[in-house]
Amino acid sequence: MVGFFGAAITNSLLLVADGPAIGIPLRFATGFFIAGVYPPALKLLPTWFRENRGLALGILAAAIVFGQGIPHSSLWFTLLTGLLWGITVVGDSAQFSKIVTETADQSYVATALTVQLAAGFAVTVVTIWLLPFLQEMFSWRRAFALLALGPIVGIMAMLRLRPSPESTKIGGGKG
Length: 175
Description:
This protein has 175 residues and is mainly α. The chain is built from eight helices and no strands.
């Protein structure tokens, strides 16, 4: 409960933050508290939802992304951005999380999810940081085209997983 209330309070305080000197530490604190909510929730959801696990994980990821965005923009912009982000970006996070819950040693599912999510967030942060530099070096068109490397790597990883014995655990054996 500390993570939940801490994240809610620090995220709400962003509504009155006056500049980056206050906003950045509050974002850091929000992320810190979310770390106490998100991984445990990802561990619990697969045990509650044996069927429709991917849907449940997707709703959790979308709710967290949506909740984090509310203090930063108008409601209509947040709704539109959240919808587009959820359809195009967050959607695969739930699928990868589901695969981790089905293929990892069940004693270490929470740890495996934490590592997977940390890697995903790290890639996201680096990508967001790199994009303006790529745009200056090339153009927006080429910078965004370089983002296609992420899905290509993901597809290659899934193709590599397909012939392995672990793939039979995915989707109730439909992997």
